[in-house]
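Researcher: Please translate sequence to structure tokens.
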Amino acid sequence: MIRKTIENINITGTSSDGRAVARINEQVVFVQDAIPGDIGDIMIYKKKKSFMEGRLIKITTPSIDRVLPFCEHFGICGGCKWQNMSYEAQLTFKQLQVEDALKRLAKIKLPEISKIIPSPSTKYYRNKLEFTFSNNRWLTIEEMQDESIKNKNALGFHTPQSFSKVIDIKHCHLQPDPSNEIRLSVKQFALENSLTFFDLKQQTGLLRNLIIRTSNAGEVMVIVCFHQDEKEAIQNLLNHLSNQFTSITSLLYVINPKGNDTIFDLEVKVFKGNNHIIEEMPLADNKDKKLKFKIRAKSFFQTNSEQARHLYQIAYNFADLKGEEIVYDLYTGTGTIANFIAHKAKKVIGIDNVPDAIDDAKENSIVNRINNTTFFSGDLKSVLNDTFINENGKPDVVITDPPRSGMHEDVVKKLLEIESDKIIYVSCNPATQARDLNLLDSKYELIKVQPVDMFPHTHHVENVVLLIKRQIVHN
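Model: Translation complete:
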């Protein structure tokens, strides 16, 4: 490993993955522990042909945007890497990330890019967190040297550098109460009753994961994932939670003996309460009327509920529906956008490849007495064919909200064949969105671009664009 220190280097920007960036002799250097505007000494520990990696070891002149991190776990936990940067600066660099992706990767004519919409809350904004039990917690250097430390159990987040290590979280600033109290109470009960924490390498132990979901309607879901089906120990822990926290409206558990943590292919069992919580969202053009969404253990729902409404409002405004349009909502998930816009459309067709999500979408329409939505489950590139379009009608508007990988190329090709009047593209990854916009440019003009900050103190940014079908002029 290279160990070379270079002095008085100016940190000039950020990369698409959130790392600070400097240039030394025209070569890019990705720098840990720095923010743009810092000037200091960098210790280079990796050198490649096209870039180097280093760590800021001394600040000569701190950036005017540098602030004191508010979390005691900052620098170890990888969850909020930008909290040493002022929120105003975070928004600036997220805006630049969108602009850079569109200019460098889309390579199309761009309209003026609207100013990013900030999150109303910068702390306690998440409605879902997943914690991991481990018998091999992350230790400080001092703890490593202390042979008297026997308890290495932890309940928290994986460390960025070592997935087998888990940081024991004391207080997390991401999710509102009673999230912290529940997590700490579960850990205390487990320690007092000698319940075993999961060993990732040996694949042993009882306690595996803890998932907490909260809603703006005041409901709380707790899902405890056990590695083994030890009925008495499971019942004792769940009874403790039920008695200790009357605010829990949905207490669930899962037995997961697999080699991975995902629960999507496992049965979720109800110990007490409902199998869901309710999330509320004011209607686009009537804040007094609220849509209700049933959120189950496996449901996808935007984790920043307050900002999710702003995101969907932008999509709604871009669609500018008059009441006679057929709308396709691709990658519909639990039908949040579809149900949010349905009152202004003739009908909305939602498609997603997760059957449980489609079941949720259908139920959410029923809960809200929406009768002009239809949902289909299946792989989009297979479902979205000529037969499907003939049966459901050609869409006037397409709204697409794909995963980080973007749309499959076959889906993009089909959209070019369909030639709907408008496409609204919601993305959590400006780079893959830019790639898809380049492909759509042959028939669509990019009219509007609106970045949205869903995740303060991280580099992640959402972006919504409006595409209008080009008018072909015949001589």
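Researcher: Any highlights?
Model: The chain has eleven helices and 21 strands.
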